[in-house]
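Fold it.
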Amino acid sequence: MSSSPLLNDLIDALRCLPGVGAKTAQRMAFHVLERDRAGAKKLADRLATAVERIGNCSRCRTFSEDPICALCANPQRDAQLLCVVETPVDQLAVEQATGYRGRYFVLLGRLSPLDGMGPKELGLDLLAARLAENEVHELIVATNPTVEGEATAHLLTQIARQANVRATRLAHGVPLGGELEFIDRGTLAHAFAGRQLLSD
């Protein structure tokens, strides 16, 4: 540790970032102090502004500066399709990689009782209320294929059934360009179980 309490505080603060351990945080702190103080001030300013002004959309729970985000406010989006994702990063991935033109609901996590993430924390009461409006015809479950993601998907399917909404799940399996010998066992088993009929 440094003899400077302020430097030690900076290093500790940087460790809140994902994947940043003690050594990486130390390198970051020394870098901005040695070579980029202007960049550090700009980062601190943007970070403070973002933390203060960015909240969550009241409709879908994604990050937004406004009470209702731009996607929810867009009348061109198909209100009959609702894609449920775990995080805003997942939402961005779907937006960038597909031609999906429906709306979203962001859980901001997945079921994990040990981490204090239950139905209330995931906003499932808000989701149920949204489905009860009878506007959504299909709930697309796009949770990650983890144990917690699958448990979350199961609960989402039950909520959709109670609202008489069709629930679908993203396909999981062998990636395009992948070779079977390099696919992990879980993915290969899932793909094998979900095989489809070939058409001419």
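The mean pLDDT is 91.
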